[in-house]
Write a structure and sequence with these properties.
This protein has 244 residues and is α+β, with helices and mostly antiparallel strands. It has two helices and 15 strands. The strands form three sheets. Strands 1, 3, 4, 8, 11, 12, 13 and 15 form an eight-stranded antiparallel beta sheet that branches. A five-stranded antiparallel beta sheet has the order 2-7-14-9-10, with no helix packed on it. The longest helix has 34 residues.
Length: 244
């Protein structure tokens, strides 16, 4: 075989291999993008995608630093923070799988609230429509002494089956999964709450709670997700969601 012919064959072979490699890489990337389905709710740099309940933007007390979203509690305003308030996602969600991490300051209280119906003419606060996963320093905050008010509980409705919350100041990994009425709370890898929404048992559960005074509570099947300003420093990070 002539040298020029040999070189041409090598070039063709290299091009074919390179093309196959590129196709393989494209396929892997496509599978990864299709497979995940996760939507980031916090980019680690800004508050894009969030606003205060009933407002157009986020108050200045909610800040971002080192990839964390946190509440600066320098200036109190009653039981909440000046420039704080509860923040909610711009988007509403129906069936979803939410993941995030939180840590709380000593004696702190906050919450992750979902299925919020944003109607300020009817409801003054996010917790008047949306159920909550409690975020709490169990040992330092008074709510830690109240049944169904401890970290990881479905607040005022169902206690954790087992407590897996980490000590104050450490990060806790949360998953909230709501799919066609089945609700699960996972805290640090353990399923701590599992229940069914919107059936007769759920209605009775709400009727026996502090939320019975708000007829809309726990009835909405689509809504926003909130991070609560309860007047204490709290941090959140790695917030993402998948529609189911």
């Amino acid at each position: 075989m002539k040298r020029t012919g040999f070189i041409m064959l090598l070039a063709i072979g290299f091009a074919a291999c390179n093309s196959q490699s590129e196709k393989k890489e494209e396929t892997v990337m496509a599978e990864t993008n299709t497979d995940s389905g996760w939507i980031s709710l916090f980019d680690g740099q800004s508050l894009k995608g969030w606003h205060n309940y009933g407002k157009a933007s986020v108050g200045e007390a909610w800040k971002v630093a080192d990839g964390n979203l946190y509440l600066d509690t320098t200036q109190k305003d009653g039981w909440q923070i000046k420039g704080g308030g509860d923040i909610i996602t711009d988007e509403a969600f129906e069936n979803f799988h939410l993941k995030l991490e939180w840590k709380i300051a000593p004696n702190g209280n906050s919450g992750i609230i979902f299925y919020i119906h944003e109607d300020t003419a009817k409801y003054d606060h996010v917790w008047q429509t949306g159920p909550e996963m409690q975020v709490l320093d169990n040992d330092g905050h008074g709510d830690g002494k109240i049944t169904k008010h401890r970290a990881g509980d479905l607040y005022d409705l169902i206690s954790c089956s087992t407590e897996t919350v980490k000590p104050v100041g450490e990060w806790n990994a949360v998953e909230i999964i709501s799919n066609n009425g089945k609700l699960d709370f996972i805290l640090n890898g353990t399923n701590v709450v599992s229940t069914i929404l919107w059936d007769e048992a759920w209605t009775n559960l709400v009727a026996g709670s502090k939320f019975k005074q708000w007829p809309g509570f726990g009835t909405y099947k689509e809504g926003h997700i909130a991070l609560q300003d309860h007047g204490n420093t709290v941090w959140y990070r790695n917030i993402k969601i998948k529609r189911l």
